[in-house]
Amino acid sequence: xxxxxxxxxxxxxxxxxxxxxxxxxxxxxxxxxxxxxxxxxxxxxxxxxxxxxxxxxxxxxxxxxxxxxxxxxxxxxxxxxxxxxxxxxxxxxxxxxxxxxxxxxxxxxxxxxxxxxxxxxxxxxxxxxxxxxxxxxxxxxxxxxxxxxxxxxxxxxxx
Length: 159
Ligand SMILES: [Fe+2]
Ligand SMILES: [Fe+2]
Description:
The chain is mainly alpha-helical. The protein contains four helices and no strands. The termini are far apart. The site of one fe (ii) ion (FE2) has 4 residues, from helix 4.
């Protein structure tokens, strides 16, 4: 979650991204149900429209997360932050409210989401650590090559 308050347009893009993303998943869910009901043509309309909603969501994402800023490490960190927010703040709060409402099904669904968001955060953190190690190793190799090149150059200049 961002610490600085986002501008109205950024907030609108976030909301529009959420809406388009939800439309995508909702239409795919509706398509599945339409298929189960034998309405194949209706299912296809939902599926085709869902694809377009994904394109709309990606359009908003490109403005929210410009590609020039998306290094591998930055993307993994964004993912870790999002999943961590889900399992430390969002779902615990939702779970508490569901419990107060006596909605047992929602409570157990939230519990499951807490476990899975934590697993996702941990997997991303592990991936980030591995990627960081690989980058460090690559940087060392690069440095070795640069030093070797410099030594060779100095040797030739001296000769
Ligand atoms: Fe759309
Ligand atoms: Fe997740």
